[in-house]
Amino acid sequence: MQIALVIFRADPEHGGAERYTADLAAALQRRGHSVDLIASRFGSRIDGVNFIELKCTSATRLGAYRAFLWQLDEQLARSSYDIVHAMLPVTNCDIYHPHAGLASEAMERKWTNRLNFKRREFARVERQLLDGPTKPIVLCLSDYVAKLALEQYPDAKSQLVNLFNAVDLERFNPNGRLPIRKQFGIDAGAVVALMIAQDFQRKGLATAIEAIGSTGPILLVVGRDDFRPYAALAKKSGVTDRVIFAGSTDTPEDFYSSADFFVLPTRHDPCSLVVLESLAMGLPVISTVFNGACEIMENGRHGFVLNDPSDVGALAEAMRKMMDAGFRKSAREACLALRPKLSFDTHVARLEEIYLSRVAQKSAARAKE
């Protein structure tokens, strides 16, 4: 098939959706498909994948997004794709795959989003797409996302398809844990809680810092967000020596292999890829009911799923339980047993079936014209 994968930025260092898209492009190419990766910015080259750059220079983020949409429409008009698979709201696509959740739902969930011109435009374009006459298939990363989608778009029920996130098991495979620890001066015997995130506020970094306490784990924070307010919070909380800000990385597997458990007290995550990668690496996880990725976990077995992302006491208690080596050992074994369910190959094979169903759907529609 001729497939276009569309994302605003295709740099894997930018976040989980970007890393997923790059991995998907490579996997589809290996399976014999012709893949165009369409974006305004890219990371490293991917063998066999055609990069199509859309120039989106503008003084504002809203302007850049609109320029992206205009140029995307021009690219699609002069090309012949069997499938257009978009990771963000666009004016026309076959597969809509909202990794950050539904744009319209975000307007209701957080009132400050209504003040953001770009987010408002995201919601407008999404509603035009999903309420239009030619609805795309909407890939829902979890039951959590499917429920939110139905609340926003009840008429699109027949177009909703659940496709749980997945992991490259070859890449995210448990191994030694010394290199990153040495780099950051972490003692080999210390218990390390890892957090990888690009939006520290939404992902609950403040709660994690407040929860670690003087006898808790070392908190190793990976991400490109501004760490300075959180460094100030760590100082105020008296845990400066227990919080390490590592910056961004394009090799998260090195950090997983150096940690003892993963923590992400997120307020909203459709299906956090970093949680699934952690589980595949054998890392027990602490996250929340507002993270679709936790649907694969059993609370108390693979880690802990908290009801309230802002409950510092509950997170601190979960961390105290994680400090027990015996619990971590049994939880690690349970996490590793989940690996077959997280297979990226199985995920891509299912996605190919969805692609074919969409191609058949379009052919049937043309036959009626």
General description of the model:
By secondary structure, the protein is of the alpha/beta class. It has two domains: 2-166 and 343-368, Glycogen Phosphorylase B (Rossmann fold); 178-341, Rossmann fold. Helix content is 41%, strand content 16%. It contains 14 helices and 15 strands. The protein has helices at residues 16-30, 61-77, 103-109, 117-130, 143-152, 178-183, 200-203, 205-212, 228-236, 252-256, 273-280, 312-322, 325-336, 344-368, and strands at residues 2-6, 9-10, 34-39, 41-42, 50-53, 83-86, 95-96, 137-140, 160-162, 192-196, 218-222, 243-247, 261-263, 285-288, 303-306. The strands form three sheets. The protein has a seven-stranded parallel β-sheet with strand order 5-3-1-6-7-8-9, with helices on both faces. Strands 12-11-10-13-14-15 form a six-stranded parallel β-sheet, sandwiched between helices. Strands 2-4 form a two-stranded parallel sheet. Strand 13 (261-263), helix 11 (273-280) and strand 14 form a beta-alpha-beta unit. Helix 2 (61-77) runs parallel beside helix 4 (117-130), helix 3 (103-109) crosses helix 4 (117-130) and helix 8 packs across helix 12. It is globular, with a radius of gyration of 21 Å.
